[in-house]
Design brief:
With 212 residues, this protein is of the alpha/beta class. 35% of the residues lie in helices and 26% in strands. The strands form two sheets. Strands 1, 2, 3, 4, 7, 8 and 9 form a seven-stranded mixed beta sheet that branches. The longest helix is centred in the first third of the chain and has 11 residues. The chain is elongated, with a radius of gyration of 19 Å.
């Protein structure tokens, strides 16, 4: 109830500027969500749509507190009082440095460390589990909580990890990274969540409708 009230207060139409903050993981925000909202700035010149790139798992809390008005969440984090819609799932591939291009996937997984965003990030482990590779993987991991840092470490041959297809595309195209496991993908479902308003402002519904 607190989150809904705060969202309604924040969502009141204002004759000057209306502020909306949208939170989500770095990968999906930079590759898909932000570009899909470009045209909204011209359509609603009084709307200030800002973005909070957050790779931690506290985005539901931010939404409940009214710190953000819209958030990208894992479906299991969407609570009953929230409105939501399913988004196109992220597709992750397993990548490593091009320095290792002549090594077999099994060899890399068995001998090298996983690099993830943070300690509770299970994306790479879930990928390996899907393809029955988790049992051969090392249990010690490294962490870098930005795409730039994580990709830099992988390029340098410090370890391997998962990236979304969109984020990995440039690095694969330049030949600095290689795709492992025959380029097979792991789908990670995502949901867009918000608190309902008694009267949905047009700008708010357009934001929601623009994000797929």
């Amino acid at each position: 109830m607190e989150g809904q009230v705060l969202s309604e207060i924040t969502g009141v139409q204002n004759k000057s500027n209306v502020n909306v903050i949208l939170a989500g993981p770095t990968s999906i925000m930079s590759s898909r969500i932000i570009p899909s909202c470009f045209n909204l700035y011209k359509e609603f010149p009084n709307m200030t749509l800002s973005y909070q790139l957050d790779d931690q798992e506290n985005r539901a809390t931010l939404l409940k507190k009214g710190t953000v008005q819209i958030a990208v969440l894992s479906p299991q984090d969407v609570s009953l009082e929230m409105d939501s819609k399913m988004l196109k799932p992220d597709k992750y591939i397993l990548v490593a440095s091009s320095k290792w291009k002549n090594r077999k996937t099994y060899d890399i997984i068995h001998n090298e460390r996983i690099i993830d965003f943070y300690t509770s990030d299970r994306t790479t482990q879930n990928y390996l589990k899907k393809f029955s590779l988790l049992d051969i993987a090392r249990t010690d991991r490294l962490f870098a909580n930005s795409n730039f840092a994580l990709i830099s470490l992988i390029k340098a041959g410090v370890g391997y990890g998962t990236l979304t297809q969109e984020v990995a595309a440039n690095e694969l195209g330049s030949g600095e990274l290689v795709a492992l496991n025959q380029k097979q993908t792991f789908e990670d479902p995502q949901a867009l969540a918000w608190y309902s308003r008694k009267e949905m402002p047009k700008y708010f519904s357009r934001i929601i409708g623009s994000i797929k």
